[in-house]
Design goal:
The structure is a single chain. By secondary structure, this protein is an all-beta fold. About 0% of the residues lie in helices and about 40% in strands. The strands form four sheets. The protein has a four-stranded antiparallel sheet, with no helix packed on it. Strands 5-6-7-8 form a four-stranded antiparallel sheet, with no helix packed on it. A four-stranded antiparallel sheet has the order 9-10-11-12, with no helix packed on it. The mean pLDDT is about 95.
Length: about 230
């Protein structure tokens, strides 16, 4: 909690019991970011406002100052329905538009550049239509559309974008193939997803067998997880 990660207005080194996050009176939180940005917190309230606290050294909380933020501050976004963050960036669906803030050195903001942004910056290149969920990883980002198509962008050293290359992208690229996705989850250098027919696939780094395909071979495109079980979430 030394940099406000606990959001309780303090800077205790360690909290060994749960502490209450110090939201203003009357604020009712309806969801939290999954995952959270590095050493920070993000939440959405019942009125569609986003709140952030903790480390903000790269502008990932979309605030004009760089923290640490010891208690939740309202972020300059409205009608927020989705939020996620990892590393030093964050993504928001606000009014049906996906925005990003924070470090952009690997293209993870999806605005066509590798510049960082403290102000909410629109992700360019996503198709029209509702976004079902947002994903984030260390220097990577993704959006699952309501039609089951998945777009991702950012760091791609191990092929975690699943597009058959190791070239990073600063704009969203559709994950190739005919699979329809139900849910996705991203790790530091790999991605896994569940399809509409409840099969699990993974791609990217596989040094420790994290792709579940019975090998330790890096995969640049989705490969099936070696199990016949029907998956519903990953």
């Amino acid at each position: 909690g030394t940099r406000g990660e606990l959001g309780d207005a303090g800077r205790a080194d360690v909290a060994r019991a749960a502490v209450k996050v110090d939201f203003p009176q009357g604020v009712r939180v309806t969801s939290l970011a999954v995952p959270m940005p590095y050493d920070g917190g993000l939440a959405i309230d019942s009125h569609g406002h986003a709140w952030g606290w903790g480390v903000d050294g790269s502008g990932q909380l979309c605030l004009p100052h760089c923290g640490p933020i010891l208690r939740p501050e309202k972020l300059p976004l409205s009608d927020v329905t989705l939020v996620t963050g990892a590393g030093n960036h964050a993504l928001f669906d606000a009014g049906g538009v996906v925005y990003a803030c924070g470090a952009g050195d690997r293209g993870q903001l999806g605005d066509g550049s590798t510049a960082g942004q403290h102000d909410p910056t629109k992700v360019v290149g996503l198709p029209s239509g509702p976004v079902e969920s947002l994903t984030s990883s260390w220097k990577g980002s993704g959006a699952l559309m309501s039609n089951g198509r998945y777009y991702d962008w950012g760091y791609n050293q191990a092929g975690q974008l699943g597009n058959g290359t190791t070239i990073q992208s600063s704009t969203p690229q559709r994950l190739p193939g005919l699979l329809t996705w139900l849910q996705l989850s991203t790790g530091e250098l790999h991605t896994c997803g569940v399809t509409l027919d409840h099969a699990a696939y993974c791609w990217g780094s596989n040094t420790y067998g994290q792709l579940g395909d019975s090998t330790t071979t890096e995969r640049l495109s989705p490969v099936p997880v070696s199990d016949s079980l029907p998956f519903v979430q990953i």
